[in-house]
Hints:
Elements: H1 3-7, E1 19-20, E2 30-31, E3 36-39, E4 42-45, H2 48-55, H3 60-67, H4 77-98, E5 103-104, H5 109-126, H6 129-141, H7 159-166, E6 173-174, H8 176-196, E7 198-203, H9 207-215, E8 221-227, E9 231-233, H10 238-243, H11 248-251, E10 252-254, E11 267-279, E12 282-287, E13 292-296, E14 299-302, E15 307-308, H12 316-319, H13 326-345, H14 350-356, E16 358-362, H15 366-386, H16 388-391, E17 395-399, H17 411-423, E18 427-429, E19 433-437, E20 441-445, E21 451-455, E22 458-461, E23 465-466, H18 469-477, E24 487-489, E25 501-503, E26 508-510, H19 515-545
The structure holds flavin-adenine dinucleotide (FAD).
Amino acid sequence: MELKTDLKIDESTGLIKDNCDLEDGEISTYKTGSTTLKYNSENFDFYTSMVVLKTGQATSEDYGTLINPSQNTSENKGERGFKRIISQLRSLRSNNNNQAEPVEENLDDNKLERKQENVFALLEMNSDKSDNEESVSQAFTSPREESNRSNMNDFTDIPYLKLAFSKLVDPNKRYSKLWTNILNKLKKNSNELDSKKENVTVLGSGWASTTFIKNLDPKLYHVTLISPRPWFTMTPLLTAAISGRIGLRTVISPVSRYLFKYPKRGFELIKGEAIDYLGNNTIKIKTNCNEEKIHKYDKLVIGVGSVTNTFNIPGVEKKVSFLKTIDDVREIREKLFNNFAIAKNNNLSPKEKEKLLSIAIVGGGFAGVETAFELQNLIETDLKFMYPDEAKFAKISIVEMLPNMLPICEKSVSEFANNTLDQQKIKRYNNCRVTLVDADAINVVDKNSTSFKIPASQVIWVSGIMQTSFVKKLIDKIEQQKDNRFLLVNPDLSVIGTKDMYAFGDCSRLTVKPLSSIIYKECVRNVSLQKQLCSTTQKLFEGRFN
Length: 546
Ligand SMILES: Cc1cc2nc3c(=O)[nH]c(=O)nc-3n(C[C@H](O)[C@H](O)[C@H](O)COP(=O)(O)OP(=O)(O)OC[C@H]3O[C@@H](n4cnc5c(N)ncnc54)[C@H](O)[C@@H]3O)c2cc1C
């Protein structure tokens, strides 16, 4: 066996690959990136940490020498320790070279069968059966050739099997036939188990879908995840990423994080989107490479979220930035920084600067109000530092159709938002409806039906949600779906009027109120009832004792 293989250590243990490059007994510079250690014209391939483990006698002094030999001179102990390791490596290598290749053990049919039965008995006794099958099925999909396995040391990637086998065989012999029989049987079991699993196709990788995948039992289902972006976006953090208070990488996490628990063959990720429902448990999908495909499922779980509602207002699609993804955040920041650069470098008049640096946010909900504050923060800090003469011309406006900002909140919260916006000099337009988005302004109509323009060279549109085109098509195709704003679902989240189809999150709506919401309302009612009772009782007492 080659020393290199013997010394390899699994990267999943977290040990770092280090390299020292030595020329003929001299300690030379420390390098990373290659695994070769050269000493007296001999090459040793190794991982530093493993050398320490392998020699057994290495001290931290040796370890230090290996980690950074350039800091040690030939006089110090470090080099002596290092030389000792080299000599141990040499003797390891010669031992390995002298080791005889394991020979094949000839077993007659009876012995073969008995050993095989014993291995399975031990497997069952030692651990959960399905775990074995899972690790075996993973091993089958690994690049290693099955036919090359015959000695128990070839099965380090199937630890359960190796453990069971090691109790019954001579580690220095080969058992090709026995291994093949056992593996074939396990493979058959594993395939049978696989074929029994239902294929659950999950659309989207947002809040709803990722939570679902995390909680699904991988022993019962195969999962196919179809999403245009293979990551989860923590939407409440998007606004903070606009000001740069947090980086874009912090806002997303890859879906692979949720897939570790699935065996390799139990999960498929398709980068693309569902574009149509074709009936008979099939959908049409379009991959990110623009390929259209028919996809069959046993169960379809729809978590495609929503898109921003543009209310079909002219100019919106062409001119505005939305705020749903990290690409949107990038676009908003890029445009803002570009405008500041143009304002600085083109000798613009103050009026022109004011026009160029005017930003309007449409929608006074949470996302809109937070965006306004974050933009103001960005202008007051980074942009003011980079463009001190231009920052004072920047102006942010926020437009809301209803009488207050944060209209879904109770009055005191809305008023607080109104006041804080005023304090920060963010121009607030309540009771105003946008009718047109122009190149450098938005047209609005107020509650008295008066029209006017708000200057805006940059518009950020965060005004509520509507359905994706896929969900719209789906609603059109299902007769029992009566509301064209949402996919209506039963309390078990099955889509009304369909079979094997479920929906959750922004794209769906429950037809009956969930029990939790009824209980919540009841609790709130009871609390206010209690409050009333208390205050009445208090008044009674106050009346009696005062
Ligand atoms: C800026 C901002 C801040 C927010 N803050 C809050 C908050 O503080 N609290 C709160 O409760 N809510 C907040 N929300 C709302 C919240 O993000 C949504 O309610 C939530 O994301 C809905 O989850 P979902 O899983 O239904 O959809 P999403 O999380 O939007 O995920 C939809 C997924 O489906 C994918 N997809 C879309 N179309 C297709 C298709 N055809 N095929 C396959 N995949 C598709 C998308 O790429 C995405 O991965 C905020 C929203 C925004 C935009």
